[in-house]
Amino acid sequence: MSAFKDVLASSKHIIAVAGAGLSAASGIPTFRGAGGMWRKYDAFSIATPTAFRDNPSRVWQFYHYRRETARTAQPNDAHRALAEFSFQHIRDRVAPESTFTLITQNVDGLSRKALHSAAQNYDLPVPSDQPDPILLEMHGRLFEVICTANACGHREPNFNSPICPALAGTEELVKAGAEEPNIPLANLPRCTKCGALARPGVVWFEEVPYFMEEINTLVEQADLCLVVGTSSTVQPAASIASDVQDNGGMVAVFNIERTERDDEADFLFLGPCEKTLPAALGMSASERLSI
C-alpha cells in the first residue's frame, strides 16, 4: 500500500476502469464471479441485438429486473472514493496536478449518483465533461431508452417504475428463474417521440461501446490505471490495463478474488473494493473528514 501511494503521488494521468464488482456492495449482482448473472442466465439470449430482435419480451423483462434492482441501490464507499477523487482540489492531496477519468462498464448509474452526491456534500459544481471527461459510461445507461426505428433513434432518460404496465411484477419471475410470460410487442416500452418499439439504452454484446475515441486517447496518455471490480474478460475494456502498461504506465488491481490477469499487475489488492480502494486513494472515512 505504501509503495502504491508513492506511485499515485507521482502519477499525472490516472484512469480507472470499473466493472460489476464496484457495485457489488450496493446490492447489484455481478456477472462472472461466484453467483454471477451469466452463470444463471445465457448472456447471448438476453444481451445481444439478435436476442432483442428474436424475443424483445424476454430481454425487456430481464432489463426491467435490472432496473428495479438498481433503482433503490445506493453508492458504496468505493463509488464515493472514486467520486471524491474526481475533484481536482481533493485529488491534489494524494496525486498533485494529476488528471483523472473513470471509465465504467457499469450501467447502473451509481458512479454518476456518487459524483453528484460528492459535489453536493462539498458544495462544489459537478465537474464538466468538457474538455476533459471525468466519467465515461462506455456501456450506456440502464435508465435510458432508445427508439429502434432507424428514422427516429430518439434517446431519453426514463426512470419510470415499471417502465410500462405489462412489465410490473415480472422482476420477481426473473429473480426466481421462473418461466417468463410472453408480453405482446404492443405492450412493451415504446418511443415517446414516434411510438416505435424502444430498447434499453445499454451496449450489448456484438455492439461497439461508447466513447472509444476518447478512451483510446486517455489510455495513450495514462501513467497509472486502476482496475476496479472487473474480471477483464470483455473487450475492449479488458485490454485497457495491458495497453497502459505497453505504453510505460503502471496498473493496480482491486478485486474481491483473483482473475486470470492478476500476474500482469504492478499492484494487486484483494478484498472488497469498498474497503481497499478508499484506503489506497486516501479517501477512507477518517481521511474523508479532513477534506
From TrEMBL:
The keyword Zinc applies. Its cofactor is Zn(2+). It is found in: Mitochondrion. It catalyses: N(6)-succinyl-L-lysyl-[protein] + NAD(+) + H2O = 2''-O-succinyl-ADP-D-ribose + nicotinamide + L-lysyl-[protein]; N(6)-glutaryl-L-lysyl-[protein] + NAD(+) + H2O = 2''-O-glutaryl-ADP-D-ribose + nicotinamide + L-lysyl-[protein]; N(6)-malonyl-L-lysyl-[protein] + NAD(+) + H2O = 2''-O-malonyl-ADP-D-ribose + nicotinamide + L-lysyl-[protein]. Keywords: Metal-binding, Mitochondrion, NAD, Transferase, Zinc. GO terms for molecular function: histone deacetylase activity, NAD-dependent; NAD+ binding; protein-glutaryllysine deglutarylase activity; protein-malonyllysine demalonylase activity; protein-succinyllysine desuccinylase activity; zinc ion binding. This is NAD-dependent protein deacylase. It comes from Fibroporia radiculosa.
